[in-house]
């Protein structure tokens, strides 16, 4: 009796703790789905270091049904690409996800890792300031100076910890790192060890170790990956959503999830509002109207699916805080101005031409949004 009461209080405390966190990792956000898949998957043979079989990982990512629970799709796109990604992680090859900003590279990477090993937190965020020590290891310098090199003074990188435990490490925006930092991965991926000469030892990778890296095609000119490093990855290019309906579905789903997590006190956007935003983004992104009857200039910034999700989520926040709780044309227009006009001199002209030559001619359904956008663009 006491143990059941204690367990109940522990569950309540954990739930309350989760509610205080701004953003939950996928293994906690979708923990009930992973648990349901574990039960269904109990008799299936699993690769070393994996908590689910490859088929269960696929179901977690693309969605499906399990006993008493619907598995929500985490990635809406080509299922074959997800199958190839999972198959890659079954081998000694690492995985590189490439695509334009907003093609769900990081989201797919996180959810794959959550499903495979239940820990998506072993992550390196690539930046211009990322050094080789972020990939291998560093030292607690106070302990190093006091006692010299020791296991206690060693600070393990996420990749080091993944090798130790036989799990998956994530490397976000790898092309933003300097070339020499990127190439520190070559020996790790080839030899599957990390050498620590200060301690005269090597750390071998346990079975199940792998790396999922992501890179934006827009960042290709920042620090292009060497051929030697590319050869050690299986590369999958994630395309933008294939059509308007698919992108609308993605945006609607993610907006609903994010607004629930942020507890925004506003109604979810109408299908018409989402379709308008996605239509604008798709047309500006491709440099032509959806019917291909009119060529358009594209703005200098990124007009991605992720930007559309962010815009609508922010519009919900505006409607909840300063409106009547329903997204208005004014709320959407405020977000559109910031999303499209990144370069004040060039993008403002591009946006004005789109308003006058495309949106204005779309009739009464677009009239309110056109008027508000035009008013803001003249400020």
Question: The biggest beta sheet, please?
Answer: 5 strands, parallel
User: What radius of gyration results from the CA coordinates?
Assistant: 24 Å
Number of domains: 2
Individual helix count: 18
Residue share in β-strands: 5-15%
Question: Looking at this structure, what is the CATH superfamily of the largest domain?
Answer: P-loop containing nucleotide triphosphate hydrolases
Mean pLDDT: 90
Architecture per CATH nomenclature, i.e. the level-2 architecture of the largest domain: 3-Layer(aba) Sandwich
What is the CA-CA span between the terminal residues? 68 Å
Count of DSSP E strands?
11
**Which regions contain 5 or more consecutive residues with pLDDT less than 50?**
1-10
Summarize the structure.
The chain is an alpha/beta fold and 379 residues long.
Summary tags:
18 helices, 379 residues, disordered N terminus, alpha/beta, five-stranded parallel β-sheet, single chain, Rossmann fold, 2 domains
